[in-house]
Amino acid sequence: MPDMNGIEVLASLRATGWAGAGLMLTGYYDAIVAAKARREGFQEVLPKPVLDHELIGTVTRLLGEQRAKKVAE
Fold first, then answer.
1. Alpha-carbon dihedral of residues 8, 46, 34, 68, nearest 10 degrees?
2. What is d(CA 67, CA 15) in angstroms, rounded to the nearest whole number?
3. Phi, then psi, of 44 in degrees rounded to 5
């Protein structure tokens, strides 16, 4: 992304009131990047390339967590 990185995109979405799950895919994965992303609001950080079943499983889990959160409210 030429104008924003993923953390900035999520911050911008949160500033508008969006409360969905944040999933970061990064080609520069390491423990420091993952920790920063989680501090900034991402629920999950996956390294690229990501296997199809890993991505589908993660998205399914995050959507289930969001659904459960809404039901609990």
1. 80
2. 21
3. -145, 145
Could you tell me which residues come within 8 angstroms of residue 54 by beta carbon, excluding any fewer than 6 positions away?
46
Burial class of 61 by CB neighbour count within 10 A (0 to 12, 13 to 18, 19+): middle
Q: How confident is the model at residue 73, as a pLDDT?
A: 85
Q: With contact defined as beta carbons under 8 Å apart, do 33 and 51 qualify?
A: no
Residue 66, SS3 per DSSP: helix
* Cα distance between residue 3 and residue 47, in whole Å: 21
pTM value is: 0.83
- Which tens digits make up the pLDDT trace of 12-29? 999 999 999 999 999 999
Tell me how far CA of residue 24 lies from CA of 4, 43, 45, 69, in angstroms: 13, 8, 5, 20
